[in-house]
Design brief:
Layout lengths: L3 E5 L8 H18 L12 H17 L3 E8 L4 E10 L4 E9 L9 H4 L1 H14 L4 E7 L4 H9 L6 E7 L4 E7 L11
Parallel strand pairs: 4-5
Antiparallel strand pairs: 1-2, 2-3, 3-4, 5-7, 6-7
Length: about 190
């Protein structure tokens, strides 16, 4: 099994657009299905316009003090995916609102299904380093492959508080609380 490192993209100059675009292309079918295009005012936009809006959003996450974007590597130093969202370091809260999966060094995306625990461990290390233990995953609550993945891989686990919030725009937020001790990560 691989290990995963979450690395902040701390400056736009450090943003690897080639890697990001590769992940976006490999996630495009899922993004078309599960991204809130209508809410973003892009439901009638072309694919190229939608892709550019995701690049702009990613750059905004990098430059905003209340947002974050991580490039996630496996132990072979291959960029596997990007994850981002909002962060409140004073309150210790992270909201995951952005996720695009690319391929690993073997050109495969099998890790999405096989390395869930390892990805969770890598995320928890990063979240604790940010002083954040409260985590929410926010997604469109309609029958999409992303919703199915979240339900199958993240709901009803030890860190799942068993609470969710229904949004006004058809989104849903699942809420989690991480342990202060990494030793408890073995329970998941």
């Amino acid at each position: 099994m691989a290990t995963y490192t979450f690395s902040d993209v701390s400056h736009v100059d450090n943003f690897d657009l080639t890697s990001f675009d590769s992940c976006m292309e490999l996630s495009w079918t899922s993004l078309l299905e599960s991204y809130p295009w209508e809410k973003a005012g892009l439901s009638d936009s072309t694919d190229d316009e939608k892709k550019e809006s995701l690049r702009v959003r990613a750059r905004s996450m990098i430059t905003s003090s209340d947002s974050w974007l991580c490039r996630v590597y496996n132990n072979s130093a291959d960029t596997c995916f990007y994850m981002g969202g909002n962060i409140d370091r004073d309150e210790g809260k992270i909201h995951i609102t952005f996720l695009i999966y690319g391929a690993d060094g073997d050109g495969s995306r099998r890790y999405i299904a096989t390395d869930v625990l390892e990805m969770k461990k890598g995320f928890r290390v990063w979240a604790r380093s940010q002083g954040c233990l409260a985590v929410s995953i926010i997604y469109v609550d309609s029958p999409t492959s992303m919703r199915t993945a979240i339900q199958n891989k993240y709901e009803n686990h030890d860190y799942d508080l068993g609470t969710s919030t229904e949004g006004l725009n058809g989104d849903k937020s699942n809420n989690y609380r991480l342990s202060t001790s990494p030793d408890n990560d073995l329970l998941d």
